[in-house]
Every structure is written in structure tokens, then in C-alpha cells.
Amino acid sequence: MNTPETVEPQDQAGPRTLQRGLLVLKTLQNHQGKGLSVTDLSRATQLQRPTIYRLLAALIDHGLVQNSSHSRRYSATRQDQGLFGLDPRVTIMQPIMQELAQLTGDAVFLVGRDGDDSVSLWREIGPYPVQILATYVGKRQPLGVGSGGMAYLATLGDEAIEQIIERNANQLDQYGGMTQREMRQLVTNTRIRGYSVVGNYAVRGALGVGCALCDHKGRPILAMSVTAITERMPAPRQKEIAGLLREALDSVADKF
């Protein structure tokens, strides 16, 4: 049984929270592999579950921990993905993402690939009062269910796309009831437009526009997207945002 937690004096609360956060992080680092659930972490650290949830949220937001939405297990990210060595793609893209978030007013996301998954590398929040923040640094989901991941997926070869869709088939239904057929159609639409438009799958009531950056051989390096509530994303604005994304990505192409 977990021991009760006491309220700390104000001048001790900060250091105490830091110590607990580091304890959770260290515990996850010592159990790499399948990851740990909140219950596992609570048992290992003797911290209460609400405290674990708060600490995990902060660690995830800073890219130090990632979670699997379908297994509800958490794991420490590799150090080259967290604050102890920021991903070089983030270092290059962060200033541009900040500018784009201010310009559009909406949330901007940077996405990479790990196997059959997309991985959120960074996000910047715009000033519009209603923000779509369903993804965060370190979050993984099947490649293609979000606008950034779809932009990335559509740049791959037909055979690779088909293999990824088939391997992810048993997970797609968790994202707004997406089907393999719908994902294939989204790939086709993305290729025709030159940018992705994905709405109401990963997040209900949200719509994202994404573009991918490829190297000189046409291989995708990353993708960037802007996501907002559906009402803010009529077709003309989708096209406008795609142009801003393309311009931003082209401006840094020579840095990769």
C-alpha cells in the first residue's frame, strides 16, 4: 500500500516535485522495453496515482517520456529525443514553428517516423483561444492517422504504404473508426493536392493540414502540420495554410 503524501511547505514544494519527477523518470529508464503502467509506477515509487499522472504529463510535455494510448504504458524516450540532447530537427524547426503558430493562431506540430508509427517531435501553441492539443512531444500513433503523419506516409512508395497500412490495420479503428480503405483514399487525396487534410479521426472536431519535407532523393525527413477546430478550416484556409507550411519547409530544406 502506498504511504500517504503530505503537503509540503511552499519553499520546499518545488524541489520536492523535481525530486519526484526525477524518481519517476529514473524508474522508467530502469525498465525500458515494454514500459510501465501508472499502477506499476505507483508501486515502484510509492507515490500516489494522481501525483504520478501530474508528473507524467510534465515529463511527456518536455519530451522525456512517451506513452502508448492503446496499452496505457509509459516509457522513457531515448536521450537524443529529450532535453538531454534535443533532436536536431527540432533545433532547426522550432523558430519557424513559433512564427507559424503566431501567424495562423493555431497549434503547429512537427512529426517524424519510427517504424510504422508517427512520433510527435515538437509542438508550438498559437494565440487563438481554442487550441487543439491532442498530441504532445513523444506521442506515437499509427503513421497516417494525423495530418502530419499522413503527409509523411504519402511520400513513401506504394508498396511501403500498403505494408504499413496492413500492419497497422488492427489499430486504425481506434482513431475515429478509420478503415484501411479510408486511409488509402487519404493518401491519394494528399498526393493529388500536394498536402494532407485530415479531420475528425485522431481528434473529434479537429482538422489538420500537413506537408512533408523530403531530401534530394525524395525520401521524407519530417512533416509539419497545423491543426485547428474544424470551423476554422474551410477549404480556402486549408490551401492557404498548406502554402505557408510549404514555404516554411522549403526555407530550411538546405539544412538537412
Automatic annotation (TrEMBL):
Domain HTH iclR-type: start-end pairs: 15-78
Listed GO biological process terms: negative regulation of DNA-templated transcription
Gene Ontology MF terms: DNA binding; DNA-binding transcription factor activity
Short name of one Pfam family: HTH_IclR
Cited PROSITE patterns: HTH_ICLR, ICLR_ED
Keyword Ligase: no
Ranges of residues in domain IclR-ED: 75-256
Keywords linked to the UniProt accession: DNA-binding, Transcription, Transcription regulation
Residue spans crossing the bilayer: none
UniProt KW NADP keyword: no
Protein name from the UniProt record: IclR family transcriptional regulator
InterPro entries registered for this protein in UniProt: GAF-like_dom_sf, HTH_MetabolicPath_Reg, Tscrpt_reg_IclR_C, Tscrpt_reg_IclR_N, WH-like_DNA-bd_sf, WH_DNA-bd_sf
Entries under PANTHER family matching the protein: HELIX-TURN-HELIX TRANSCRIPTIONAL REGULATOR, ICLR FAMILY, TRANSCRIPTIONAL REGULATORY PROTEIN
